[in-house]
Amino acid sequence: MIDFRQAARETAARVAACEGKGTHAFLAWSEAALLAQADRLAASPDAAAGALAGEAVAVKDVIADADFPTTCGSRILAGWRSPFEATAVRRLRAAGALVAGKTVCDEFAMGSSTEWCAYGPSLNPVDPARVPGGSSGGSAAAVAAGAVTMALGSETGGSVRQPAAFCGVVGIKPTYGRVSRYGLVAFGSSLDQIGTLGKDVAGAARLLAAISGRDDRDGTTLDRVPLGEPGPTAGSLAGTVIGVPREYFPTGLHAGVRAATDRALARLRELGAEVRDVSLPHTKYAVPTYYIVAPAEASSNLARYDGVRYGPRDDGASDVRAMYRATRGRGFGPEVRRRILLGTYVLSAGYYDAYYRQAQRVRDLIRHDFARAFASGVHALFTPTTPTPAFKFGENTADPLAMYLSDVYVCTANLAWVPALSLPIGRDAGLPIGGQLIGPMEGESTIVRIAQALERALDGTAEVR
Amino acid sequence: MTWETVVGLEVHVQLLTRTKMFCGCSARFGDPPNTNVCPVCLGLPGALPVPNEQAVRLAVRAAYALGCTVHPRSIFARKNYFYPDLPKGYQISQFEGPLATGGALACVSPDRGPIAVRIKRLHLEEDAGKSFHDRVPGKTAVDFNRSGVPLIEIVSEPDLRSPAEARAYLAVLKQVLGPGYLAISNCNMEEGSLRVDANLSIRPAGSSELRTRTEVKNMNSFSGVEHALTAERARQLVATERGEEIVQATLLFDAAAGEVRPTRTKEEAHDYRYFPEPDIPPLVLAEAWLAREKQALPELPAAKRARLESAFKLSPAESVVVSATAALGDYFEALAARAGSGAGKEVWNWVANDLLSLSRDGESIPVPAGPAFETLALVRGGTISRQAAKRVLAELVQHPSEPAAAIAERLGLVQVSDTSAIEGWVRETLEAHAAEVARYKAGETRLMGFLVGQVMKRSQGKADPKAVNAALSQALE
Q: Would you give the DSSP letter of residue B185?
């Protein structure tokens, strides 16, 4: 029999230890909230038999939950309590899990370092001078610091995998439509997916299995059987074909990243996998395409934060237009304002065809690149997750473009809707390096199986050079 | 120079669904403010829209009724603008890839006779909430009960040539879509379930150019639309004759003053930044489902009129009356079927004159066809007079289960055709009106009517008029 109250107390102690070290992974958590959840779970007939019974899950603050505020790391939602919980949260609770708290993220998930969180960034538990990555940086830091073994994050362009790589944990971005977006505060709706983070591949995959599946509240969810639990780790990858897209390994690639990926590819070969060169020729257009599609959708999705129905309102304004300007001007931070402006521009009359429509065409080409690679007999693609290990605080905040380029290898999977995961494949000068496996549409179990085998075959914390 | 008026209408029709377009909230009109709301229709963070199947069905029926092509794949789009009663900051509508295009509605123009008004497109969208500027001093109050109620927008081509034609088009649109036929909407302008934005321009008669148009809004009745367009046409004519340029503008109709005025807000160039709604996959409708919906459409007014005219030898003016609603047409046919072939005109007279006058709403008849036919049969058999039949029908409204014959009996309306009784009344009448009898005999034959009336009076209306005529003629010979 599971003692939920005991699990709640232990979780509280671990979170307190993590936060006591100054990690600042959490925006909201409390022992009282954990104990209240424990009592609810104890009273529920099914919770003790659930797949996640008594386990604690940290939840990114862009995912709605009625027990904690949902601020999205923004002042414009300061103190906002959602009257409903996201489908993913409802499902993990139904599986017997406790929500440990809400984690730090870049404002509305726009950023790659948590430096754009209005309530302060998280520190990378591996090296506090460095960012944990983002935007799900708080969730990755919470797992890396040992506060929890699993967390929910969200991705629009790599926001789970990139921080997972920076913090040395596992992150999975499922196929678009695998997990309900109901309750995930929208950023770029055609790209957004809730993803999972874990200490190991099995943990992240188990959490994903618990939250996946069709939801009548989200018309874009896949009409499929939910994902099952991950299977036992395979000792051999014989018969598995791994594609290595050359566009992800440019000549100037960071030497540590190159050494780590070379070592991982060698292990994959040793496991019996066939490693094959492939080409995804439109990769170079992914970042520009992403930075048209995502801000366009964001400019519309963030229009609702107008001070009329909820959130802080600037009441000194003389008319409603001035109220909007004052409320939104003060409520949103610089990166969110930048993307709203960018998105509004690319959707404007006279620019729509040149930007938004063109970006949709290029997005189709990127999707076809993947489809062609997988149709050629490749089961999964292997790439670095990020071009470099975690950068230092302040290194990229003055240069938005440099910040955007840290997502160059991850945003393609969001554009193409395919599943992808990042796992630790070694360290360079103490900093974690992530390796990425990208699967075909609905191919989560394939990449999880390969990742489990690779995870066992290499020491993800070993120095690579 | 003679000028021609060019009008196109954009009509928004609220669909009669139980729930809203993208959530499960009640779509009912008139509930206390902000009681039919949820995270979806309030635009709370994280909520997502899911289309209402019944709304799609009703929109498809409307599209077929208007002769449109319904596209098996259509796309929802976001129309972005800021307004306090628009909770998401965008309205979910359709833009590129609407549900239906290319229809036509047959109307009768008061000036030109039968016309076909082309329908450019019909698309689905959601309604906004409602702002009240007069409830709270110095503030605007917003009711979100209407937020997310399903709408269709029906855009006509600029095929209307006068304000009266615009009104005629709206009347037919309401007849087809409203409770009388398809019943996909109440089509009530006062309650806002049908709303009209009108575009008007003028051009030299005979020209085919389309000149700068203005948009007229804020009408809340069909006559308001006609008045507003008449006022706007007059304004444009005066301006044009003066040599002024017509400027594209939105004008508001002031029903009390009978004027149109430019909107007071600064004219902003609206850029709605439409783009495909990423939260809703393309709306894909199975061909078989579409075919079934098309097949299941009821007979529409134009077809019904044509059929009634040919089957019952009715004139166009007569067929219009009994095809006002599908139910009235059915009633007419039910009665005509009982009355037998060739009785079309007779039954029309009963329906149009006797029965419709009993209706409270001018459309539904409160006497079922069965008892109505029994009454008609009593007249045909000479049991009661045509006049007495009106009283029987009125009584049937109060006592629907009482047989017509029993009512006639109870009210003492049964005609006397007993010759001896009639001859007695005739004799008494002739004695009492000797002077008139003398004048009649002197050639003043039109006094026959007077004498018949006097006999009827003596019989208290019970005498069979035919028998009275015969008996009088005989007695006066």
A: -
User: Contacts by A351-360 with C-beta closer than 8 Å and gap 24+?
Assistant: A352/B273, A352/B275, A355/A292, A355/A296, A356/A292, A356/A293, A356/A296, A356/B275, A358/A292, A359/A288, A359/A289, A359/A292, A359/A293, A359/A296, A360/A293
Contact predicate B65/B177, CB 8 Å: yes
- Selecting among A82, A135, A212, A406, the annotated active-site residue is A135
Structure tokens at B27: 């779509």
pLDDT of A229 above 70: yes
Contact B405, B383 (CB under 8 A): yes
Q: What is the CATH number of domain B419-476?
A: 1.10.10.410
Q: Which helix (H) or strand (E) holds B53?
A: helix B53-65
Q: How far is A101 from chain B (nearest CA, A)?
A: 18
> Mind giving me the DSSP string for B139-169?
S-EEE-TTTT-EEEEEEE-S-B-SHHHHHHH
H helices present in A178-277, as ranges: 201-211, 255-270
pLDDT digits (tens, 9 = 90+) for A98-126: 999 999 999 999 999 999 999 999 999 99
CA distances from A9 to A284, B33, B417 (A): 49, 45, 104
ipTM for the predicted complex: 0.96
Place of tokens 């309401």: B174
- Looking up tokens 């979806």 gives B40
Cβ contact, residue pair B78, A84, below 8 Å = no
pTM higher than 0.90, yes or no?
yes
User: Closest residue of A to B24, CA-based?
Assistant: A217
Residue A279 neighbours by CB under 8 Å, 6+ apart: A245, A246, A247, A369, A373
Give chain A positions within 8 Å (CB) of B89: 300, 302-304, 306
Residue A21: active-site member: no
pLDDT tens for each residue of chain B, 477 residues long: 899 999 999 999 999 999 999 999 999 999 999 999 999 999 999 999 999 999 999 999 999 999 999 999 999 999 999 999 999 999 999 999 999 999 999 999 999 999 999 999 999 999 999 999 888 888 889 999 999 999 999 999 999 999 999 999 999 999 999 999 999 999 999 999 999 999 999 999 999 999 999 999 999 999 999 999 999 999 999 999 999 999 999 999 999 998 999 886 554 567 999 999 999 999 999 999 999 999 999 999 999 999 999 999 999 999 999 999 999 999 999 999 999 888 899 999 999 999 999 998 888 899 999 999 999 999 998 888 888 899 999 999 999 899 999 999 898 888 877 788 888 889 999 899 989 888 988 888 888 889 988 888 888 878 888 888 888 888 887
Instruction: Provide the shortest C-alpha distance from residue A197 to chain B (in Å).
Output: 21
Please answer yes or no on whether A347 and B46 come within 8 Å at the CB atom. no
What is the SS3 string spanning A318-364? Answer: CCHHHHHHHHHHHHCCHHHHHHHHHHHHHHCCCCCHHHHHHHHHHHH
For A295, how many CA atoms within 13 A lie in the half-sphere containing its CB? 26
Interchain contact A417–B (C-beta under 8 A) = no
Q: Give the single-character DSSP code of A47.
A: G
Contacts of A272 by beta carbon, 8 Å cutoff, 6+ apart: A236, A237, A238, A239, A240
A135 is a catalytic site residue:
yes
CA angle B272, A220, B185 (to 5 degrees): 60
**Cα pseudo-dihedral A308, A310, A315, A321, rounded to 10:** -30
Contacts of B45 in chain A (CB under 8 A): 64, 70, 72, 77, 80, 82, 185-186, 304
The SS3 of residue B352 is helix
Q: Could B140 and A320 be called an inter-chain contact, meaning their C-beta atoms sit closer than 8 Å?
A: yes
- CA dist B129 and B141 (Å) reads 10
The answer to whether B140 contacts A299, with C-beta atoms less than 8 Å apart, is no
CA distance B62 to B298: 11
Instruction: Say whether A320 and B278 touch across the interface (CB within 8 A).
Output: no
